[in-house]
Write a structure and sequence with these properties.
Blueprint lengths: L3 E6 L6 H12 L8 E6 L4 H11 L4 E4 L13 E6 L2 E6 L11 H9 L4 E3 L7 E5 L2 E5 L13 E7 L6 E7 L5 E4 L3
Parallel strand pairs: 1-2, 2-3, 5-6, 6-8
Antiparallel strand pairs: 1-9, 4-5, 7-8, 9-10, 10-11
């Protein structure tokens, strides 16, 4: 049985065109057509969201986290979000010593009783499971630092099952295709 899906985006850094491509793709995947029922933005491009959502008419429930480049916004740097059967600890990541490993993220998730961590900042997509906690970085919509290119994630959350992230690449001409993240 399919579960609800969560669209996860981060690090647009002014690339509104790429963000619009994602939102145009996603708007055909919200109910009743599919099950993307909420979206998370993990910072560094909050100004881009309004422009892109207005231009694409993409509307759903949003959870927004501020990043280290989101000046002038009073947004939380971290938050907890209960979605489907999961508790998500969300942060941009710039305050979690990511280049030294994931210990700070794992501790924050455990302290929040979260079983999934969503984070950005590194601009590199990843999915790892450490100590029973899923660590998911959607990569960067606007300034990728991986060989895959510009990416985002969609997480399926079937009832009573583990979250299932899928990663998607945004091509140079706005086309979107599923990619494997190791």
């Amino acid at each position: 049985m399919d579960g609800k899906k969560l669209l996860v985006l981060s690090d647009t850094h002014g690339n509104v065109s790429a963000l619009k491509s994602v939102l145009n793709w996603a708007k055909d995947r919200v109910p009743p057509n599919d099950t993307i029922s909420a979206a998370v933005f993990l910072g560094d491009g909050v100004f881009d969201l309004r422009r892109a959502t207005d231009a694409t008419d993409f509307f759903c429930e949003w959870k927004i986290i501020g990043g280290n480049n989101d000046y002038g916004h009073l947004l939380p740097e971290a938050d907890v979000y209960d979605f489907a059967d999961h508790r998500f600890y969300m942060c941009h990541g710039h305050r979690h010593s990511l280049h030294g490993g994931y210990n700070t993220l794992i501790t924050a998730a455990a302290n929040s009783q979260a079983n999934v961590v969503l984070f950005g900042h590194t601009h590199v997509p990843c999915h790892k499971k450490v100590n029973g906690i899923h660590l998911i970085n959607p990569g960067s919509v606007g300034q990728p630092r991986s060989l895959i290119g510009a990416t985002f994630a969609v997480i399926e959350c079937p009832e009573g099952e583990q979250p299932k992230p899928e990663f998607w690449e945004i091509g140079e001409r706005g086309g979107i295709r599923k990619v494997k993240v190791g």
